[in-house]
Amino acid sequence: MGDNTTEQRERQARWATSYSTMTIREAEERLGIQIDELGAVPLDIVLLSARNLEGVDADVILKAKEEVYKQIIQYIKVEGYPRGDSTDFNKANLDDLVYSIISPILEDFMHKTGRKIRLERDEEIISTNNETGGMGEFVVVDQISETEKKFVLLIQGKRSSVGEGMNQCLLSLKDMRDNNGGGEVYGFITTGETWQMLRNDDKEKWIKDYSALVDCMFGALSNGGILRQRWFPSIVFA
């Protein structure tokens, strides 16, 4: 118990303010946006990037969808349906479900594209000026070399609602992109039943379509960590 507390304090000392303690107003000031006024674009624009990946055709994505479906069915049989209002469905159950879903997607993507992406659990995300920071539950990085990596995407599990994770996800994405030196980074928030996605490039995009999760994940893996010129937030609703 004492060791965990000491480790937590050491981590928090690396940044001035934790994402989890920031209010909506503080987050908006940090991001330079009003969260409830984020713009929207059609879902098919995001899905298009998944369909145009080099080395990844429709059969590859279909295979990944079938594997994810099998994983979900297996999970439900073993651990039950992921309902946030159930006392039997806790954070550990949600983390198990997230891993079950994303692991076959990552494996298929790496196999077909040759990208050296890695899944890191409880990964530190710290702003370039150490002003803000926090822990990413599931963080996918692109391992450029032994000493260099770029953030690709972040996945957060929230039992109560996806809205609960909005501030933290947006703040994490900003710092991930800043650490990358630009480009695109993606965030997924899930309750187990619902998945929503943010993309931080020159716009913030918000996806709300579970059936398109695999397509969106392939698109995020393809574009995440790739440099662009601007950052301006907006949001996408399916």
At a glance:
42% of the residues lie in helices and 21% in strands.
- SS content category: alpha/beta
Order of helices and strands: HEHHHHEEEHEEEH
Number of contiguous helices:
7
Q: Termini, distance in Å?
A: 44 Å
Radius of gyration: 17 Å
Mean pLDDT metric:
79
Largest beta-sheet characterization: 7 strands, mixed
Strand content: 15-25%
Describe this structure in words.
Helix content is 42%, strand content 21%. It has 238 residues and is α/β, with parallel strands linked by helices. The protein has a single domain, classed as tt1808, chain A (Alpha-Beta Complex). Strands 1, 2, 3, 4, 5, 6 and 7 form a 7-stranded mixed β-sheet that branches.
For this entry, give a set of tags.
238 residues; alpha/beta; seven-stranded mixed beta sheet; 7 helices; 21% strand; disordered C terminus
Give the SSE map.
Layout: H1 2-12, E1 17-18, H2 24-31, H3 43-51, H4 58-79, H5 91-113, E2 117-126, E3 132-143, E4 149-157, H6 166-180, E5 185-190, E6 195-200, E7 204-207, H7 213-223
Parallel strand pairs: 1-3, 4-5
Antiparallel strand pairs: 2-3, 3-4, 5-6, 6-7
